[in-house]
Design a protein that fits this description.
Blueprint (H helix, E strand, L loop, with lengths): L3 E2 L13 H10 L4 E7 L15 H14 L5 E9 L10 H4 L5 E5 L2 E3 L6 E3 L4 H11 L4 H18 L4 E2 L20 H15 L4 E5 L14 H9 L4 E4 L12 H10 L4 E6 L2 E6 L2
Helix pairs in contact: 5-6
Bound molecules: zinc ion (2 copies).
The site of one zinc ion has 5 residues, from loops.
């Protein structure tokens, strides 16, 4: 099978290392294809996306690398674009015009109705708790339901190929402190969301970033990957690397989980086409 990863963050956004360090790491680890997916700028100040002022530099540098290394490795230029309802999203004409090789659609933030700021659902416990308390009366359930409703809205609007870390809202939910993934309402949200993705032509990302030394904490959870298989949703494997030495983090463990869910193939963007590739 081809060795690929399309989800990476350099020092252009919240990762460490230069884009070229990622290319060198990918070559040394035997990658066939490697994709850049810096966080696209958001319409408010934050410390984790690239500011709008450097987007062009990012595009120039990724183009330079793609051309410089074209005989050694197939490099792909992408962005991870947030869906922020009624403000921005992967379907914006602006991104269409960039003619990127691929786009990852993700949700990282929800609005706090008291302060008006956007807070991370997958960033820190304190931001998650501020959101739960300010906007959802201390109850995580409506927050989680809102998160999945927005994922469905993003999926319906389209404009991207890869749906990023579907259940990242569980990131700070260690030991089920905010909600219980085994409850019926949560499973219903997942089913509804996967039904929606199955009707699109989007690829569900299996993401090994942020697993905190526990591969069963991949995104989405193994039981969700099994339901995705039932819906015949195509999947791909990404590391969401924020360091050049982590571009294939937990890939072997993740492949076992994906095979165990009943999948035998992963989606791969090779040259200019998406193809399915046997897992081995
Ligand atoms: Zn992300
Ligand atoms: Zn990412």
């Amino acid at each position: 099978m081809f060795k690929t990863n399309y989800h990476s963050h350099s020092e252009f956004c919240d990762g460490t290392g230069k884009l070229e360090d990622y290319v060198k790491s990918a070559i040394s680890r035997g990658f066939d294809v490697f994709g850049f997916s810096g966080h696209a700028p958001l319409p408010f100040e934050n410390d984790w996306t690239m500011p709008k002022s450097v987007l062009q530099d990012y595009l120039n540098e990724t183009k330079r690398l793609k051309s410089a290394y074209k005989n050694i490795i197939d490099l792909k230029i992408g962005l991870e674009i947030d869906f922020v309802e009624s403000k921005m999203g992967p379907s914006d004409q602006f991104y269409k015009e960039l003619q990127l090789d691929f786009i990852i659609g993700s949700i990282h933030v929800l609005p706090d109705i008291i302060t008006g700021e956007y807070l991370g659902v997958e960033y820190t416990k304190s931001e998650m708790e501020q959101l739960i308390n300010d906007t959802y009366n201390g109850d995580a359930k409506p927050l989680v339901k809102e998160y999945y409703k927005l994922i469905r809205n993003m999926s319906k609007k389209g404009g991207f190929e890869i749906l990023g870390h579907l259940d990242v809202v569980k990131k700070t939910n260690i030991n089920s402190i905010y909600f219980d993934e085994t409850e019926k309402w949560y499973k219903d949200e997942i089913e509804l969301t996967l039904e929606c993705i199955a009707e699109s032509d989007q690829i569900l990302e299996i993401n090994t970033g942020k697993v905190l030394n526990d591969p069963t904490r991949i995104y989405p959870s193994p039981w969700i990957i099994k339901i995705a298989r039932k819906y015949n949703i195509p999947v791909m494997l990404n590391s969401d690397a924020h360091r050049p030495d982590r571009i294939d983090n937990y890939f072997d463990e993740a492949k076992k989980i994906i095979l165990n869910a009943g999948y035998t193939e992963l989606m791969v963007l090779k040259e200019d086409r998406w193809i399915s590739d046997c897992i081995d």
